[in-house]
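subagent[fold] <- orchestrator: predict structure for attached chain, return tokens only, no commentary.
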Amino acid sequence: MTQDNSGFHITGGTFNGPMAAGAGAQAVQHTGAATSGDRTTELLALIRDLVRRHAAELGDTRPVLRDADQVEAELQEENPDQDHLSGSLARMAARVAPVTAIAEAVAALAALVS
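subagent[fold] -> orchestrator:
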């Protein structure tokens, strides 16, 4: 008897690594020493992608994408204004709160740049 498994069943030992299940699931693991600049770029790209994919849940995505642009621009400054970054990230977090995956990415970005 064959069954579709869109979950995980792991027995014995220890497993440590990315996992994904279900239709369209993705698991990504980055290895090596990425700089914080690389990581912020990755997180901003992920946030933008997730915002576009979850547009139906978020409604008007322009404010979130505008905040992402402002965060990116500020991070490119020689001496980023932490107050401006904090405000932009707080607005982003509030706007994406209904979608956990985006909220987690914004939280990770905020932790990285604070």
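orchestrator: received. Logging for downstream: The helical segments are 36-53, 55-58, 62-75, 82-96, 100-113. The CA atoms of residues 2 and 9 lie 15 Å apart.
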